[in-house]
Amino acid sequence: MGRILVSFLLLATLFAGLGTYYFQVYAFYDELPEQRSIRLTPIGAAASQEFAVQNFRGIDSDSSPIRYRACFDIDVDPAQLTPYSRATPLNAPGWFDCFDAGTLTEALRDGRAQAVMGEANISYGIDRVVVLMDGRGYAWQQINPCGEAHFDGDPVPQGCPPPPERRE
User: Fold this and answer.
1) CA distance 113 to 104
2) What are the residue ranges spanned by the domains of the chain?
3) Three-class SS of 41-61
4) What three-state secondary structure class fits 26?
5) Of 28, 46, 73, 97, which has the fewest beta carbons less than 10 angstroms from its beta carbon?
6) DSSP secondary structure string, 123-134?
């Protein structure tokens, strides 16, 4: 009887682990349709503007505003765009093989890539960041200082847009 119980517990644990892995890595992501442009913010511009891209691949999820990842070809001069100093590439699922956060982090640190503002506050407290390197663009969304304070329940720093009303 003990062996049957232990076997059942081991199988249940195995299936729970496999299910958790599947839901974390595959289930909540949707592949995005081909896009012909991406929004980037030129230096001094009040808002982002459309820039043409090719070979777009992207994923996103409704479960979190920071699950967006994209890779694309783009011909743009980074010197014309608003720099993004806090760029921290976020990991993508392993099956989304065009986006490698480690390689992007290293390229930013070595100066082989430049991070620019895609679109500020694409949703409250979330910026879309784009890294440009060798004619390729890599985009993700990350929490900005306004979002960090707001999501932690702290007052937002000066200069932040008013936060949305909290839902109870």
Assistant:
1) 8
2) 1-28, 32-152
3) CECCCCCCEEEECEEEEEEEC
4) helix
5) 46
6) ETTEEEEEEEET
pLDDT digits 0-9 by tens, 34-60? 999 999 999 999 899 999 999 999 999
pLDDT-derived band at 4 (thresholds 50, 70, 90) equals confident
Residue with tokens 């892995």: 21
The answer to whether 84 and 115 have CB atoms below 8 angstroms apart is: yes
DSSP state of 113: S
Q: Which token pair is 36?
A: 């012909």
- Decide: helix, strand or coil at residue 75: coil
Q: What span, in angstroms and rounded, lies between the C-alpha atoms of 75 and 52?
A: 8
Which helix (H) or strand (E) segment holds residue 142: the answer is strand 136-143
Question: Who's near 132: CB < 8 A, 6+ residues apart?
Answer: 74, 76, 78, 81, 113, 114, 115, 116
Q: Tens digits of per-residue pLDDT, 19-35?
A: 676 666 656 788 999 99
Which pTM was predicted? 0.83
Return phi, psi of residue 80, to 5°.
-90, -5
